[in-house]
Amino acid sequence: MTIALSNTVANFVTHPIFVVQTRLMVQSALRKEKRYFGFKTIGTIIQQEGISGFFKYPSFLLFYVSAMPILQFGPTILTRRFLSGKSISIQILALILLKLGALLIRTPLETIYMRLSIQASPSFRTCVRISVFPYINAVNCLTRIIKEEGISTLYAGWRWNLVQVFLGSLKENIVLEIEE
To answer: Could you tell me the membrane topology recorded for this protein (predicted)?
Structure first.
């Protein structure tokens, strides 16, 4: 519980860094259309959007930063708490299955989070397509993605998340074997 809470607080506090990073990555590559430059990006966002430019959709942001540590650390905690006396192969299998289940929830949340994060002022030109009609909230974002692009769009990054899950599970399995 302490890990999840500390990660929630850390993710919320460092969220402006994510916004800056995302805006820098998706802005147009054309020099005349670039709005953000390095550390000046922070001042530009505050000047054009106010401090709320870093914390758009606060209810979803709070939900997201609270859910991610649970989805990230929950499978490991559950496996260690309830299967610690079982064989290592059962623990590994359970950990992988729990992490895959968490991945099914995590990937769409990350897609929605990213879509909401790149919405800036209407004049912001990006190298990725942004809807002409801004998302109103997370539910609107979810329903529009499904309606306009299909449910598979929510899982566009699942392969890379799967690699992360696999490598993370491998690391945790090594730790489990060392502990035994």
So the answer is: Multi-pass membrane protein
126-162 burial, b if ≥16 CB within 10 A, otherwise e?
beeebeeeebeebeebbeebeeeeeeeebeeebeebe
Distance CA 11, CA 66 (A): 8
Multiple choice CATH, 2-179, 2.40.50.140, 3.30.70.270, 1.50.40.10, 3.40.50.10070: 1.50.40.10
Across 8-12, 28-32, 155-159, least confident range: 28-32
List beta partners, residue 126: 27
Q: Is the separation of the CB atoms in 97 and 89 below 8 Å?
A: no
Q: What are phi and psi of 37, to 5 degrees?
A: -140, 110
Q: Is the pLDDT of residue 57 over 70?
A: yes
Query: CA–CA separation, 23 vs 35, rounded Å?
Result: 9
- CB-based contact 20:45 (threshold 8 Å): yes
Q: How far apart are CA 74 and CA 66, in angstroms?
A: 12
> Domain map of the chain by residue range?
2-179
The per-residue pLDDT for range 106-164, each reduced to its tens digit, is 999 999 998 888 776 666 666 667 677 888 999 999 999 999 999 999 998 788 888 87
